[in-house]
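agent> fetching stored inputs for the adenosine-5'-diphosphate docking request
agent> found them:
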Amino acid sequence: MDAGTNIKSVLGKSVRYLKGVGESKSLLFNKIGIFTVEDVIYYFPREYEDRSRIKSIIQLKDGDECSFEGTVVTGITETRPRKGLTIQKLLIRDGTGTIIATWYNHSFLKKTFKVGERYVFYGKITRKYGHLEVQNPVYEKLQAGEMKNTCRIIPIYHATARLTQNAIRNVIRNALELVEGKLEEPIPAKIRNKYYLSELNYSIQNIHFPNSDEDFKNARYRLVFEEFLLLQLGLLNIKNTLENAGKGIVFKKTPDMEKFIKELPFELTSAQKKVFAEIEKDMESPKIMNRLVQGDVGSGKTIVAVLALFKAVRSGYQGTLMVPTEILAEQHYKSINPLMEKWGIKTVLLTGSVTKSEKKEIIEGLKDGSIDIVIGTHALIEDNVEFKQLGLVVTDEQHRFGVRQRTALSMKGENPDVIVMTATPIPRTLALILYGDLDISIIDELPPGRKPVKTYAVDETMRTRINNFIRRQVQEGRQVYIVCPLVEESDAVDAKSALETAERIATKDFPDLNVGLIHGRMKPNEKEDIMSRFVKGEINILVSTTVIEVGVNVPNATVMVIENAERFGLAQLHQLRGRVGRGEHQSYCILYNASDTEIARQRMSVMEKTNDGFVISEKDLELRGPGDFFGTRQHGIPDLKIANLYRDVEILKKAQKAALEIMEEDRFLEKPENRLLKDKIKEKFLSV
Ligand code: ADP
Ligand code: MG
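agent> prediction call returned; pasting tokens
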């Protein structure tokens, strides 16, 4: 057995194999996602406590948090001020002074400290009436060699009630001892040298028990870099595989395309033309297209997909468009079907709410090829949906789907071309991480004549004025959305609910107007009914939750009121705002902000100042800081254990560069120096 297989088998062993872990403790570890020795060493600290500074007692000041060394002067004295409370005190001395350590209900300490013994303590120092005191300090007997809990930087882990910091630390220490010096370095020396990356064993050791601040920084840098590198290589690898999965379809030149475009109710913007040209080129080449179309809200992504679908059908193939909600599917169907019908192209709608017999008919039509285009929701992925010749798969509002769902639909054809469209514009570096397996096209222009939505952040004192404004808009024939963060009132959350708001609007504020209510808990046909009445203009004011967030297109709606706007992310506010400003009339967005924090104020001001989705997403990252912006999990990419997509953007850029360099020399990672990288990627991406 060579060293490599040896360490692999150690890493793969159950946590039970480690010193100090019995059956019950191993179950506790399982609960926090730790099953193997490898899981243990990759269970990184959430923060650190610097206990490396040591002071003599005379140097201790009120408020200090530091370590000090001393001799036990008298054994623990215990008092019992009242029932259920005992206080333990210990007098400690060094050559410069004395200090009292205090604990509560720690009777067992009486047996711990013996007069004359030397200890190191760590804790928060207070000085009262000239006496130094430290409450509930960490203590450790002074010994030759390394100290464990004092005199150094100490890792703090995510612990649980039954799995304490000390228990986790000890087990991690044992695991580190076991693998010390044996971890195999996956990053080739050339890359490590070029990007100043420290070696793996050193990095793992120092991420847990850093010898100094500098060692910690080096270790973290390297581990973050590695994580990004693997992610990026993994995505590029998927891209390679996709592109080489066999020959893609070569779609025909489409002479009728020009006529089709001429018959549209508007002229394409040059950005739309540019992006469609990129798609057309991919479609006509034998390469399998995997393309992301990004564009701000209202930039007109749908029509670009329609052109591609037309091309697919005119080349003898079927096409499909998958969207995240029934409302959106319905709406797309209504706008796309008439365009296709003119050309004798049969388009159908498949959602969870079509009847059994309709569904049967659709399934048959797709199988025998009599249906050309199907527009639908997740229902499209179901097993019994089969195509005669699926050539093009379009997924709209991609951020709502994972890689898996996207691929599941593609599997229904033989190497179909794929377009995904997203309305959450994101900075380029992040796009590369989240969609690193795709080519990217950007529609960077809005159709002409769009007036930017005027946005105002207001508070409750403005309610009457805003209501008057809403009334005037309705009198002019326009329609209004009012969006609430909750469906129902809740004791736990202090925010407006759609039910309560609809009630208020319909009975108090606007009893004379037609008010509709729509939310995610309604039945599909109820939602559909409300939506179609809103589209027809029968409803003046639509009270809603975020079910209308994506894609909904009612150009006559000109006012978007958002209650408790402070509860939404900027990207989401931008999406919601994008429901208005879709027609010829000036539109408005009113943000009710119920928070007086500085950060809320700043976020509202970003919304007031810009209508540019790319700028907003950058700001969102900046202001929100670490946190789940898109939910990487939702995108179907592996979780990041240590890297932070926001704080570590500079490292991300370097890792992206390195990934490209590696791939350029060794596209399929076949060289011996890249073998470990390849193994790790397989492991990571398989578990998504
Ligand atoms: P999104 O990119 O947000 O999905 P849509 O595709 O829904 O945007 O388009 C928004 C609106 O703009 C639709 O009403 C659509 O008909 C219209 N539209 C799209 N392209 C153009 C264009 N080139 N000129 C004028 N209107 C357009
Ligand atoms: Mg859209």
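agent> quick read of the result: The pocket of magnesium ion (ligand 2) is lined by residues 301-302, 396, 423, 551 (CB under 6 Å).
agent> awaiting further instructions
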